[in-house]
Amino acid sequence: MSHRLPPLSALRAFEAAARLGRMTAAADELAVTPGAISRQVRQLEQHLGVALFDGSKARPTLTPAAHVLQPVLTTAFAHIADAVREVCDPGRGPLDVACFSTFTVKWLIPRLFDFQAQHPGIEVRLRTTDAGTGAGRMHGDLTITAEEATGAWDTSKEQRLFPEHLGPVLSPELAQQVALHQPADLADPALAPLRLHTRTRRNAWAMWGAAAGATVPLPVPTPSQAGPEFEHYYFTLEAAVRGLGIAVAPWHLVMDDVLAGRLVAPLGFVASGYDYVVRRRTSGPLPRLDVFCAWLQAQALANPVPPGPQGPPSG
Which residue positions does the secretion signal occupy (predicted)? Predict the structure, then answer.
């Protein structure tokens, strides 16, 4: 069926203006003048027969019609950009990698120098994606995320990096003041102010408690949320390093700190039931992706083995 669509340039100008909130910002993004953006938007309004912006030119607001149109256009243009990238020469251009911000800071960036040394011709651009786990819509060439460990992978587009292991960590100085011999010790109400929490993963203590209770032969009460809460895992881990409390953290995010003596893990680590997974944008042969995925796998295999869980003291 044939559809009479508005001019693509008018749709592009409106989408940029609506997404960015200002005509001048849209003009900068599209490398045209603000007047050209305004004319394209008026042309689109005439074509549709509806107003798309209210308010003054300095502070325009979206009409109900614009609120319907803008997200659809944004998604459509993103799909077009992805398709164009896919048919372009895979051996040129930067490699876009998206992953959780703390994973980027604590695991990927400290190792990325090795990739750059081995492959100086491949530029890696990092972006964060902290909107929860799962596939979602891919905005780059490759996404590193966490998935429930089901074992069912689409091997043409996905590869398992490593299983996640959780454990309580704290500074050596704080460990001298707090006696932790078994997981149940952390349910002590006196330790409640020291239990650190993260807004993006409020269930970390519950996940560790359930996993530790299944691993060691004793019940592990789940600590209630009584201690301070931080916006991101990175803040929580830094607070633990500085002696502000006890954090439940994945081994791969704290292993460098544990091995360097900045943190201790007196109770070891237990499997959380999640795997870290690399998901490619396409299953086709793309040399840049192939090289980076192989490097990631090698780095994952080089991860030190986490210390095992500690049960109740013997005797």
Answer: none
